[in-house]
Every structure is written in structure tokens, then in C-alpha cells.
Amino acid sequence: MRCYLHAFLLCMVFTFFSLLYVFNQLASTLEDRDEWNLREQSLSDRSSHDAGNLLRKMPGLVGRRDREDGLDRCKSLSVTYWSPYWRLPADVCGVNCLLESTFREKPGSAVKERSDERSHLAVVACGTRLEETVTMLKSAILFSKKPLNFYIFAEDDLHDSFRNALDSWPRTVHTKFNFTIYPITFPRENAKEWKKLFKPCASQRLFLPLILKEVDSLLYVDTDILFLQPVEEIWALLSQFNASHLAAMAPEHEEPRIGWYNRFARHPYYGKTGINSGVMLMNMTRLREKFFKNDMTTVPLRWEEILMPLLQKYKLNITWGDQDLLNIIFHQNPESLYVFPCQWNYRPDHCIYGSNCQQADQEGVFILHGNRGVYHDDKQPAFRAVYEAIQKYPFGENMETSLLQLLEASLLTTTHTYCGRASHLFTKRLKQSIMSVQQRG
Ligand SMILES: *[C@@H]1O[C@H](CO)[C@@H](O)[C@H](O)[C@H]1NC(C)=O
Ligand SMILES: *[C@@H]1O[C@H](CO)[C@@H](O)[C@H](O)[C@H]1NC(C)=O
Ligand SMILES: *[C@@H]1O[C@H](CO)[C@@H](O)[C@H](O)[C@H]1NC(C)=O
Ligand SMILES: *[C@@H]1O[C@H](CO)[C@@H](O)[C@H](O)[C@H]1NC(C)=O
């Protein structure tokens, strides 16, 4: 009799654990399905369905990937083994907590994974700058591997032409970017006053943090910029900002003897030679939050409060418009500016009397800035050659033969100028960018 009782008890214990195991399996499949839905949502956000298919074929990877994404419901480990699954709160997982927690990633990597991959690029185009702007956007697309968001501010009569130009690009190119065209505007508050004081087109960039209120960060470039390497490379500098940086620009000059600000300016300017605003990286969230020191009041002012008094004070003394205002602001708030080297904003000034941009000598030109109209006249044929090579390159053709080699040939005809003699710097980085894109395709 006793023997039977023992056997019965043993059976009961065995059944109990079997049931527990079955429930455990059931619950974890449900969990997985849950995670799947979330996973797929985040995938479609990033429009990378390939990765999704890949993962679906290898379900073993799924759990771990999800944890990296921060979809981690094991916040509380203090759950006893005996709590039934159906009574656990949503942010708590069951038995596999311990297992999961050993795989858990540090919080930092979760943040990185979730962050927006896109580079956000803004330009302001007025008058006759349509073709130049379209060529700039083309250079951004040709070498970038990550998707781009374009914010195009243009006079109303240019909107259709912009739309037609971009829509005419091949469909394969369109998967790499989105664009929105905006009219030239002032912030709604005080629009009348702004209009009296500022020329709309020239000063639009100052207002971008106030107009694009929902955008965190932005790369602003002039229309006469050409990217010779992926946009995401300059975008990555945002992550090098320290706690007080909120914008990044290059110096106006490397060589003080030919610098403009240090010789002629009648207003304060940043650093030794001032800064150039043709390539300007902004963390606009920080710009909107910051209180700026200034020489008008003892009270620090917000971005939207500082612009108008500043212009009123200095309007008789400024020459280069909004760039001068930026120089005044960062003169008074130098800790807020991250200065990147000249190869990120390479202008004729850097080679016109011989090469004076050391970093470009070493690493090549990253971003070319053909200011003072050099893409369209004969003063700096080397700059013009780069512009025309990119402008004429037909999408889809081999970039090495139809872009690089043609460009190298036409640069050979410019060696009678100082910039022409430095033109191997123009193609040094470009060559790498092209190789890298072609390897991918
Ligand atoms: C950009 O394109 C993606 C699809 O690739 C879409 O989900 C997103 O809403 C678009 N964004 C804008 C600003 O048009
Ligand atoms: C910009 O600054 C804000 C506030 O400091 C920060 O949360 C955000 O991640 C920054 N953006 C980028 C792209 O670094
Ligand atoms: C403008 O320039 C003049 C002449 O150099 C100078 O005397 C004046 O102080 C400047 N104004 C401001 C607001 O700096
Ligand atoms: C950030 O770097 C700047 C120099 O670019 C420096 O002046 C500033 O003190 C730094 N801020 C912090 C919080 O470290």
C-alpha cells in the first residue's frame, strides 16, 4: 500500500513539472510573437525589409536582436518562480528572466540602435540657383550609403522646377532620399518685424531652428557645395559634440594674413579668423533650448530673442549678412561651437595663393565649396571641372569611368592655376568614395 502511495506521489510531482514545462514553452512562444510584432514595426520604420527576412529565417537570432533594440521586458527580476505567467505585469517576463538577463546589453547600445539613421540636409535656393542646388543634392546622393532627408527652401516660382528635376531622377535613386519643398518664410511670431529687417532669402538659415521645430538636427549647406564623400560622415560629427556644443562650422580662413574678418571686420567674430557658415551642422534641439550670452543685455537670450536686437545693433557694421551675425553670437558663446577642419568646407581661399589647408593636404577634400560663383566663370577652372563632372554624370553609369576619369582628364587642363596644381586633393577622397559605393553595388 505504502509503495503505491509513493509511486502516486512521484507521479504527481512528475506531472506537475511536466505541466510547468509546457506552460513555460507556451508562454515563451507567445512572448516571441509579441516581440515579432514590435520588431516588424521598427523594421518597417527603417524600411529595411531584407534584414527582416533574414531574421525570420534564423529565429535563433531574434531574441538577442530584440534585446539590443531595448524591447526588454525583464525590468524586474524579483519575480518568484511560482507566479503564474498570466498574472505577471506587462513589463515582467517569466522564468527565462535569468537567462535573458545574462544576454542583456548595456543601455547605451540600445539608444544607438534606435536612433535615426537618416541625415537631414537643408538648403535655401533663390534666383538662379536651381541647377546648382540640384547638382549639390545629386552629389549628396551619389556617395551616401545611408538615407537622406532633404529640406529645400525655395522661392515659390522655383518649386515646380525643383519637383520636376528631382522626380526625373531614376526610381532606384528615389529609394535613397525623401524631400520636402518649403516656401521662404519667417517664423509666424513677429513675421512683420522680421520682414522689415531681414532680406528673406539671405537670412532664412538663421530661422531654420524656429521653422523646423520638430527636427532635432540639421546639416545646412549653401547651394554651391559639392559633397565628395558620404553625407553621413559629416553627420557623424554630431555625436562628437560635448555637452555645450550646439553647432559646428569651419574657420573662415587658415591664413590670417589673407583673412577677411581679422583685417576688415567692424564687429566681433569667432576665433582668430572668424567662421564660414556655408557648411553648418546644427543640433537644433540645443539651439532652441540655449540661453545665449550677449552684449545687449545682462540677461541671456534665446535664439528667437537674440536675432533681431543683434541685427539692429550691428546692421551698419555687417558685410556678409547672417554669417556675420553667427560670428558675433559664437564670439560671445565660444563654448557652443565645434570647429571642424577646413577639408569639410574647402574654398578657393584654401588654394588660390598655394595650398594652405593642411588637413586637405593629408586626407583630401571632403566637401567642396565653390563660393563667389567659381562653378560658373573661368576664375577657378579646377572648381568648375568638379562641378561639371558631377552635373553631367548620368545616374546609373559607371562612376569610375563616367565621372572620375573624365574629371581627372579635365583637371589636367587646369594646372596653370594654383588650385589646379592642388587638384589631386579634389579627387583623393572622391576616389575612395566612388570605390566604396561601387563595391557595394
Ligand atoms: C520618407 O520615406 C519613408 C519610406 O522610405 C516614409 O516612411 C517616410 O514617411 C518619408 N518621410 C518623409 C518626410 O517624407
Ligand atoms: C541633440 O541634443 C539633444 C539634447 O541634448 C539630444 O537629446 C540629441 O540626441 C542630440 N541630437 C543628436 C543628433 O546628437
Ligand atoms: C561699427 O563700426 C564703427 C567704426 O569702426 C565703430 O566705431 C562702432 O563701434 C561699430 N559698432 C558696433 C555696434 O560695434
Ligand atoms: C566643449 O568644448 C569646447 C571647445 O570646443 C570647450 O570650450 C567647452 O568648455 C567644452 N564643454 C564641455 C562641457 O566640456
Automatic annotation (TrEMBL):
Cellular compartments annotated: Membrane
Q: SUPFAM superfamilies recorded for this chain?
A: Nucleotide-diphospho-sugar transferases
> How does the record say this protein sits in the membrane?
Single-pass type II membrane protein
Q: Which UniProt keywords apply?
A: Glycoprotein, Glycosyltransferase, Membrane, Signal-anchor, Transferase, Transmembrane, Transmembrane helix
Assign the protein's first listed, main location to one coarse class.
membrane
Q: Name one GO molecular function term.
A: UDP-D-xylose:beta-D-glucoside alpha-1,3-D-xylosyltransferase activity
Gene Ontology cellular-component terms for this entry are: membrane
Record-linked InterPro entries: Glyco_trans_8, Glycosyltransferase_8, Nucleotide-diphossugar_trans
**Stored Pfam families:** Glyco_transf_8 (PF01501)
The biological process GO terms on file are:
protein O-linked glycosylation via N-acetyl-galactosamine
Look up the coiled coil feature and give its residue ranges: none
Its Enzyme Commission number? 2.4.2.42
Chain ranges passing through the membrane: 7-23
Catalysis: reaction(s)? 3-O-(beta-D-glucosyl)-L-seryl-[EGF-like domain protein] + UDP-alpha-D-xylose = 3-O-[alpha-D-xylosyl-(1->3)-beta-D-glucosyl]-L-seryl-[EGF-like domain protein] + UDP + H(+)
Keyword DNA-binding listed:
no
**Protein's job:** Glycosyltransferase which elongates the O-linked glucose attached to EGF-like repeats in the extracellular domain of Notch proteins by catalyzing the addition of xylose.
Q: Which family does it belong to?
A: Belongs to the glycosyltransferase 8 family.
Protein's UniProt name: Glucoside xylosyltransferase 1
- Species name: Scomber scombrus (Atlantic mackerel)
